[in-house]
Amino acid sequence: GYLSRILRAFKKRGFIRATPSATDARQTLLALTPRGRKEFGALDTRSNDEVATMPRTLSAAEQRRLVTALGDVEQLLAARKAPNSEAPNGEPCVLRSHRPGDMGWIVHRHGVLYHEEYGWDARFEALVAKVVAEFIEHFDPAREHCWVAERAGEIVGCVFVVQKSKTVAQLRLLLVEPSARGMGLGARLVEACIRFARQCGYRKMTLWTNQVLHAARHIYVKAGFALASENRHHMFGPELVGQTWELDL
Predict the structure, then answer these.
(1) Under a CB-based contact definition with an 8 Å cutoff, are residues 205 and 175 in contact?
(2) Between the CA atoms of 34, 38, 44 and 48, what dihedral angle is there, to the nearest 10 degrees?
(3) Which one, of 138, 136, 131, 141, lies nearest residue 107 by Cα?
(4) What share of the chain is helix, strand, coil (3-state, %, to 5)?
(5) What are the E-state strand segments in 102-188?
(6) How confident is residue 149, by pLDDT bands cut at 50, 70 and 90?
(7) Which SS3 state, helix, strand or coil, does residue 216 take?
(8) pTM of the shown model
(9) b/e for 95-119, b at 16 or more Cβ within 10 A?
(10) Quick check: 170 and 161 in contact, CB under 8 A?
């Protein structure tokens, strides 16, 4: 009844027109008139302006935190709708910021997985430990971020963006657990890094990987990265080809 009274008032003021349905006598089709569209446009503009002013009281760092948080919400809702973002049991993978305890997991899982899958020795685990220690010790939330992926309360992936220079961001330590692979999680983590780097005003993003990491390289190519240089090394035991990839933002 309340809705009917509103619609009658709109019709009386010339905002809408009502047309009986040609296929169902129980239905009436409603449409905005030119006057109604003009009125709606003014309301919509005022609404957009009001929302746009809300973040202006926040600092630049707080605005980036807000955008990142809204991105997390968007990803969570998208994961609920997109089958390839879910595990077989239907639980979505959610991206969140790091918190105490995460860095130990990141070092541990990098050491275990890269040894099991590629035969890398403890020197790689030591490198990861050094990277995360530097991240925590020199963390600048306005310019750097770590995403941790969770599914049903279990960590299944991670990635970092760190400041290499004022204009260059570096993507580091992308990892996806075997149980969460094949669902597009790696691409989501990389996309989150690129989006954050652009919001921070970086002009380029770089990363270092190894030729043997085919799945990761596929994600980087799809995201628009281009191979900049490569060199052979034995940093972690087996002979490897290290590669630097770059993306203009």
Answers:
(1) no
(2) 140
(3) 131
(4) 50, 25, 25
(5) 145-151, 154-163, 168-176
(6) very high
(7) helix
(8) 0.66
(9) bbebeeebbeebbebbbeebbeeee
(10) yes
Q: What is the pLDDT of residues 160-207, one digit of tens each?
A: 999 999 999 999 999 999 989 888 999 999 999 999 999 999 999 999
Determine how β-strand 240-248 pairs with β-strand 16-20: unpaired
CB 159 within 8 A of CB 171: yes
- R_g over Cα of the chain: 25
Tokens of residue 136, six digits: 């925590």
Token pair listed for 111: 């050491």
Model confidence pLDDT, tens digit, residues 125-141 = 999 999 999 999 999 99
Q: Which residues pair with 243 in a beta bridge?
A: 209, 230
C-alpha angle 182-185-188 in degrees, rounded to nearest 5: 140
Are 21 and 29 a contacting pair, CB within 8 Å? yes
The whole-angstrom separation of Cα 107 and Cα 83 is 30
- What are the CA-CA distances from residue 6 to residues 20, 42, 43, 47, 219 (Å)? 18, 19, 17, 20, 52
In the numeric block, which tokens belong to residue 207? Answer: 């990363």
- 190-193-199-200 Cα dihedral, nearest 10 degrees: -150
Q: Which amino acid is at 29?
A: L
3-state DSSP assignment of residue 240: strand
